[in-house]
Specification:
0% strand, mainly alpha
Amino acid sequence: HVRGRRQRQMCIRDRSAAYGALAVVAPAALFARGVLRHKASSNPRAAMVGFFGWEIAKIMLTVALLAAAPRLVPGLSWIALLIGMVVAMKTYWVALLVRPGVRKTD
């Protein structure tokens, strides 16, 4: 029984961490898609408004995903969810550091 309980707990933690990563990656993907669609705007003001509009959409989607987490992830572990979010956010920095061909400025 102890082994089965540990496996269930690991599964709950894994799902919680994956949902935390999803709560970071999905809104960021939406933001990137929205900004890239409108980056060719010749009007700087429109580009800035579009950027902030997509940033607000990203924040609202993140909050909605976090608010829905207890209903969508049975037995949610908030600690595992937060760890998943932090790991996903830190992955952006690692990708920027190891990405070949990125020119660094002094």
